[in-house]
Write a structure and sequence with these properties.
Helices cover 42% and strands 12% of the residues. It has 373 residues and is of the alpha/beta class. The strands form three sheets. Strands 1-10-7-6-5-4-3-2 form an eight-stranded parallel sheet. Helix 7 runs parallel beside helix 8 and helix 12 packs parallel to helix 13. The radius of gyration is 23 Å and the shape is globular. It has one domain: Homocysteine-binding-like domain (TIM Barrel, Alpha-Beta Barrel), CATH 3.20.20.330.
């Protein structure tokens, strides 16, 4: 399982070059994958009777998957995400093909790697592959699934991605901090098993409520996840850029590591023809340029509803920009599932009392009368 990753020439050099690029300039990733795959109308046979399992297309219709990567690279993006968002325990178990986790992860990364190498050779611009690791549909915090079960499955997922040629691992669209931790730890174990080191990017999803799905504030996410050794933290999915601004501001002020942002093309509007994403390409480009200049983003891209045209305009706006220098001043603290609490020493006195009801408690009344404080 480790041979291909170790023998592939320049794999570590590519990963190191990506780290260097993220540290010195703005790197642009791609946009939506699923809608572009569906637009090519794959048949039920293409899905091997597993309707909606896009990852199967990595094996049956690599030409479709390849065409999506080509469309994004053609507009100048630096990296594409693999078609492996659902190559995880929860999603594949529902299709009863859990034993294909490695196969579908490796094939998805290999397709993207081939296209990236072709564009690197033809344009002279280094192109990279981000191995997509999606959240699945089970939340361990709510007891849907055991933490160790999905952690071990994420390791297989990550091993397949690295073996197929991914230059970085992108833990994305996370909604449950325990699920996020399981995927990060699984990714770390995969790197250790394969003897490689690639950038590990974590992208959480904050809903329109202002928190992650289970109620975690962005501060709780940063306090919980940064110590796990991720190379970058950011936001993707759920909302458009407008709703992400305050969360990015918090990260800019507190995160010691680089920041990413991959928003939807606005909040979806339900029409008779289904969901419509209203944000234009120019509006997304405006927002991402603003975020780069104000919050020092190192990686930008798009999520649901974004197209190659959206990313073409983003590339034009941020090309040549260097991340604005940040001066983060995080306050040490601890976090629950919901919020972070700073380690501050309060010099004021603290009054601690229990129920002092002389009428309701004879024992308390007697103690009070006898001055047994």
């Amino acid at each position: 399982m480790t041979t291909n990753a170790q023998e592939r020439p320049n794999a570590q050099e590519r990963a190191d070059a990506l780290r260097q690029a993220l540290a010195t300039r703005v790197v642009v990733a791609d946009g939506a994958m699923g809608t572009m795959l569906q637009a090519q109308d794959p048949t039920l046979e293409d899905f091997q009777q597993l309707e909606g399992c896009n990852e199967v297309l990595n094996v049956t219709r690599p030409d479709i998957v390849r065409s999506v990567h080509e469309a994004y690279f053609s507009v100048g993006v630096d990296c594409v995400e693999t078609n492996t968002f659902g190559a995880n325990y929860a999603a594949l178990a529902e299709y009863e093909i859990l034993d294909r986790t490695f196969e579908l992860s490796e094939s998805g990364a290999r397709i993207a790697r081939e296209v990236a190498d072709e564009f690197t050779a033809s344009t002279g611009q280094q192109r990279w592959v981000l191995g997509s690791m999606g959240p699945g549909t089970k939340l361990p915090t709510l007891g849907h699934i055991r933490y160790s079960t999905i952690r071990d499955a994420y390791q297989i997922n990550a091993e397949g991605l690295i073996t197929g040629g991914a230059d970085a691992l992108l833990v994305e669209t996370t909604q449950d901090l325990l699920q996020t931790k399981s995927s990060i730890i699984g990714a770390r174990r995969a790197m250790d098993a394969l003897g490689v080191s690639v950038p590990l990017i974590c992208s959480v999803t904050v809903e329109t409520t202002g928190t992650m799905l289970l109620g975690s504030e962005i501060g709780a996410a940063l306090t919980s996840l940064e110590p796990l050794g991720v190379d970058m933290i950011g936001l993707n999915c759920a909302t458009g850029p407008a709703e992400m601004s305050e969360h990015l501001r918090y990260l800019a002020r507190n995160a010691r590591i680089p920041i990413s942002c991959m928003p939807n093309a606005g909040l979806p509007v339900l029409t008779k023809d289904g969901a419509h994403y209203p944000l234009s390409a120019a509006e997304l480009a405006d927002a991402q340029e603003t975020f780069v200049r104000e919050y020092g983003l190192s990686l930008v891209g798009g999520c649901c509803g974004t197209t190659p045209e959206h990313l073409r305009q983003v590339v034009e706006r941020v090309r040549g920009l260097a991340p604005v220098a940040r001066d983060p001043r995080p306050e040490p603290g601890a976090s629950s599932l919901y919020q972070t609490v700073a380690f501050r020493q309060d010099l004021a006195f603290m009054a601690i009392g229990e129920r002092t009801n002389a009428n309701g408690s004879k024992k308390f009344r007697d103690a009070m009368l006898e001055a047994r404080w």
